[in-house]
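lol forgot to send this yesterday, sorry. struct tokens for the thing we talked abt
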């Protein structure tokens, strides 16, 4: 039942009973009802501190672009005292606590505060800034919550140069204190410094952009990093090309790539289940969905997968995926999202069109990953729409880690607000719909009031 349905039933009852119509629900009340009905996705509870370099090398116009980036990441968060708290540390030769974790409890207040931050325009004491964040910004007196497995502690460092002090040791102390560190480098930044600061795995925690003008393209990554779809469950099956063209040493890289993606999943009995299929001239199920419900056992099983060699029957593998892997008899759960990830390094030796179409018609969200001699048209045919978000290609097996970094398995349904990249858009749609609903209810209220006065 939609949020409006109880209201409509109530109005019909009132018309029959000649009773007095209660006040129309406020927009805030309607928004709450809609959020409850839609299962609105919330970012997991996090104490998040941005550590922003505003040294003299950062021009005023560039600093404005950093603030836009911060504001856009904040827009994708569930800001609140019991959800995500946000702080901002500004630094150059000195450090300034611009926004503490306890100061702003609304998204609008936070964004407004960010727009008012001014650059300090002196040196680059990045180590000093990290120490300040550790001692002050993440302190309980500044609004940080008591350390708990349920509360994430995250710092995002944005810098464009080489620091004038040591960062390695202080960054290690921050990580030891349970703070997850992301480092973003711009322009002529020292890449070694970024790696010294960031948490492991470095592929997930170090980012580089050529200039401040394109820093906004990292927004989606960080919105996704903080998104947690409560109660979301998914069945994921990897379909791996084990043909002779892959070669043994590259097959080992493929297994590492699978485990890199597994590290990003919430593997458990209630949440994500993972299955693995290998194919060449024939198809082999390495293990079915649900056999392993923790990451350690799952990754160990992936490592033990033996290389098949021989041909490349991708069409046959896709048919196996639809007909067998996602069958309830093989551990597939009814009512949960279903995701297939197909990896191949060459042209299929059989026709894939019908099997690829059937997989998507069966409701599978399909990702296609190609390396080396993989055919782009085949990858697009396998991938779900929009294909640009569901197929990936790299020329070299050694750079597959970059694909694992980009591939974000979205386990929410197409129109579900848990899709972090459309979270803000969804909220706006809800807002507009509720405003329209409020106007209609007010109109109905006036009509009923007029009708009651005539009856009386």
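and heres what i got for the seq, position by position
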């Amino acid at each position: 039942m939609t949020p409006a349905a109880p209201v409509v039933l109530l109005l019909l009852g009132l018309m029959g009973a000649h009773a007095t119509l209660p006040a129309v629900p406020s927009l805030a009340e309607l928004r709450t009802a809609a959020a409850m009905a839609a299962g609105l996705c919330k970012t997991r509870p996090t104490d998040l501190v941005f550590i922003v370099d505003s040294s003299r090398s950062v021009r005023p116009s560039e600093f404005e672009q950093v603030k836009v980036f911060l504001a856009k990441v904040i827009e994708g968060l569930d800001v609140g005292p019991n959800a995500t708290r946000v702080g901002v540390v500004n630094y150059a030769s000195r450090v300034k606590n611009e926004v503490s974790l306890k100061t702003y409890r609304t998204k609008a207040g936070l964004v407004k505060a960010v727009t008012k931050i001014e650059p300090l325009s002196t040196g680059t004491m990045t180590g000093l800034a990290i120490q300040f964040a550790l001692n002050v910004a993440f302190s309980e007196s500044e609004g940080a919550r008591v350390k708990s497995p349920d509360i994430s502690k995250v710092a995002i460092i944005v810098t464009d140069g080489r620091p004038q002090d040591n960062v390695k040791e202080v960054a290690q102390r921050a990580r030891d204190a349970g703070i997850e560190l992301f480092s973003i480098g711009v322009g002529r930044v020292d890449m070694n410094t970024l790696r010294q600061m960031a948490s492991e795995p470095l592929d997930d925690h170090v980012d580089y952009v050529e200039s401040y003008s394109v820093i906004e393209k990292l927004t989606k990554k960080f919105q996704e990093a903080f998104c947690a779809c409560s109660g979301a469950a998914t069945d994921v099956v990897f379909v791996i090309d084990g043909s002779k063209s892959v070669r043994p040493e590259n097959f080992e890289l493929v297994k590492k790539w699978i485990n890199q993606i597994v590290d990003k999943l919430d593997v458990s009995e209630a949440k994500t289940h993972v299955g693995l299929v290998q194919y060449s001239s024939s198809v082999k199920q390495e293990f079915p969905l649900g056999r392993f419900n923790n990451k350690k056992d799952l990754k160990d099983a992936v490592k033990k997968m033996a290389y098949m060699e021989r041909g490349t029957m991708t069409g046959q593998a896709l048919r196996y995926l639809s007909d067998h892997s996602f069958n309830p008899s093989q551990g597939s759960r009814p009512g949960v999202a279903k995701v297939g990830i197909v990896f191949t390094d060459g042209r299929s030796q059989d026709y894939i069109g019908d099997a690829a179409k059937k997989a998507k018609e069966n409701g599978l969200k399909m990702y296609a990953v190609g390396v080396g001699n993989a055919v782009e048209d085949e990858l697009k045919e396998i991938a779900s729409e929009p294909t640009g978000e569901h197929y990936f290609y790299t020329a070299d097996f050694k750079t597959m880690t970059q694909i694992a970094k980009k591939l974000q398995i979205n386990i929410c349904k197409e129109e579900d607000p848990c899709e972090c990249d459309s979270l803000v858009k969804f909220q706006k749609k809800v807002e507009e719909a509720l405003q329209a609903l409020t106007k209609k209810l007010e109109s109905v209220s006036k009509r009923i009031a007029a009708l009651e006065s005539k009856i009386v």
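DSSP finds 17 helices and 14 strands in the chain. anyway ping me if u want another try
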